[in-house]
Amino acid sequence: MKAIVTVDNWVSDFVLTLWTPLFVAIFIAIVAYALWPKNKSKFDAAASMPLREE
């Protein structure tokens, strides 16, 4: 006998079809932000913060 629809199948299908592409898009956006040339000065300043003596 075959199950018609179970909660496990519905949740798994929902996660695979919606959340996976969403998180991939978020990851790509974060990488693009980090590598954008305009943000280089911000990241360089943040990288040198631990080395500063105040």
TrEMBL record:
Name of the protein in its database record: Cytochrome c oxidase cbb3-type subunit 4
Stretches that traverse the bilayer: 16-36
Organism: Rhodopseudomonas rhenobacensis
Keyword Transmembrane in annotation: yes
UniProt keyword terms in alphabetical order: Membrane, Transmembrane, Transmembrane helix
Keyword Transmembrane belongs to the record: yes
